[in-house]
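Please predict the structure of the following assembly.
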Amino acid sequence: MQRIGVFVCWCGSNIAATVDVDRVVEAVKTDPNVVHAENYQYMCSEAGQKLIRDAITEHQLTGIVVCSCSPRMHEQTFRKTAEAAGLNQYMVEIANIREQCSWIHKDKDEGTEKAIILARAAIAKVCLNAPLQPGQSKVVKRALIIGGGIAGIQSAIDIADAGYKVDIVERTPTIGGKMAQLDKTFPTLDCASCIVTPKMVECAQHPNITIYAYSEVEEVKGFVGNFNVKIRKKARYVDETKCTGCAVCTEKCPSRKGRNEFNCGLDTRGAVYIPFAQAIPNVATIDATNCLHFKTGKCGICAKNCSANAIDFEQKDEIFEEQYGAIVVATGYQISDVTKFDEYQYTKHPDVVTSLELERLMNAAGPSKGVLVKPSDGKHPHDIVFIQCVGSRDISGRGKCYCSKICCMYTAKHAMLIREKYPDVNVHVFYIDVRTPGKNFDEFYRRAVEQYNVDYIKGMVGKVYENEKGGLTVQAVDLISNERVMLDTDMVVLAAAIEPSDGVKHIASMLTASIDTNNFLTEAHPKLRPVESPTAGVFLSGVCQGPKDIPETVSQAGAAAVKVVGLLAKDYLVTNPCTAHTDETMCNGCSSCERVCPYGAISYIDKEVMDKGVREVRRIAQVNGALCQGCGACTVACPSGAMDLKGFSNKQIMAEVDAICK
Amino acid sequence: MNNEKALAEEVVSFSGTNPRNCMKCGKCSATCPTFEEMDLHPHEFVSYLASGRIEKLLQSKTIYKCLSCFACVERCPRGVEPSRLIEAVRDSVVGQKGADYLSPDRIPERLDPDLPQQAITAAFRKYKK
């Protein structure tokens, strides 16, 4: 017979207002296994914990049930309390009578009745609990960063500075990300590449950082502290160890049809290219789809001109494996597809551009060498219209339901930069709301209006069309004056919504990290654990978690780094003892469990089994306790009931159900 | 609840769309080809109905100026479909005046699936005095 103690918490009025705690105590006392029951105002307080410790000693309790808030809040607290009184911490069960009871009931009788039922279920389960001992697993002191933009760079530097090895895996040929493409940054208008390139160089020179550019994560196995990752180093067809970055090949390449990704496709590049002058690593890459050698077998001009002998057409993708203790996802964002908004003529007229394209048109390293010109004819524009929220705050199915957060500020920046450099250009901004929360942000936007005479018009643009002069006409309404606005303009700039990068879904599923309906990675807790994924050992940095600007990204990257350092500083991690195990006499070796296991924790062995007096060799599932995370998928999949989970056995769950149905 | 609010709510429910999804961007009016013919504009129809006001809309010329071209429906970022709200107000005015133009037994058995539902419901009341 077990000796169970039940402790009912009021949680102030959170529980006590809807649940009659005295009645719960009286009701559970009738259970033959319960030898002690009481209630208290705040069970999680020091005084409440003392109550529990004293009761365990005084009544020689073998298990306790705490009727309180969700186990996500205080299960750890009460486990430690039990441990301090000499009780195994896995002899503690929580009945959630707050989130799943008092908070959702209005009627006190109903709430009380349900609380009693939940308490009885927990008592039934704890009676079948067995003491469990957590194990230990070693922590690999190396971190992996997926994505080499400013988020990944900052996390890498911070982790490396703390003394741990860091690898950055970046899928494009260079690190730097979107920030390297920007011209200036708000609200101080400093040059983006002047502040990001020193950080890129720091990464390259740091003894603790290894950069795998033009590489992708291929497979992730393992668990917190012990991830086993396969990385594909894509063939550049250039030997990185030999290439000096002299760029002679990029000038000599006769194929000029490659889309210049760095300039958002506003111009073209050779088939062998270095994305930009400060690229890191500063080595050339051959894009095989445009290379004449790969298309025709001829050419090879790059190889002939390479004094370092670095061109290697025979190069193949390489796959290598590495162990990591922690993984930071810093996969960033991309501009969402604006081609669906055909009313804005983006696909039809070259002078309709996105804001990121405008950055390149204004940048000294851009296609027009920093002189703002119309893409259609290379002439100077006299009027420029900005359209805000294109694809943001959109629930019609064409766009994204969220606010992209950065557009109000970068548009104010663009407007000011244009007015500063070209005072003859009229700038109009059509906005719905101007959202500028942030230090010196609203002042920045007001400066655009007050000092730079930027014409802010409230109202979204209805449509843009090509007029008879070959220019563009913008049709809108000024919602303040309630009048129609027809504006002839030379250029239209769309503040397009941002969205998580392509491929983030694949990465999230490899990491078993959850994503939301917009493909942003989900944080473990939106307020209290904002840089951790719910998957242990996976951390979030930058826009992959939600729209944010550079200062916020850098802060979050630093926060993620601290979490990684906190993990890597430990030599061992305590493992969860609630793992699956096989009943060898029942297992028929069908592999159902192996197929559903997300952690690769199940393998098969041939083992001699004694079953009903017959000795025979059978194929039997075996669980690796270090890999198993106790998710229970195998116990559900097993057709013969051979798989069971410690601490959550089928028997225990049936006992809970029986108690509820009594 | 006063009569105006009750009528506004009835008309909104009749329209099958929710004006409270509106974020007041004005794109419906911005895109409207007959904006300048109207005394009250599409965005104002949405705003009035969202706050339970309908009297002024019943008196408005707009209900006869709207072409039901669906530009606002196509382009509204919030799926509000202002044209359906205007149509609902128009129906509530015109519908009280006379007999149905189209009787239910004259609806063809097979409808063109691309035909807006509004076109068929409107035909019940729209033209006959």
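The two ends of chain A are 20 Å apart (CA to CA). Chain A has 19 helices and 34 strands.
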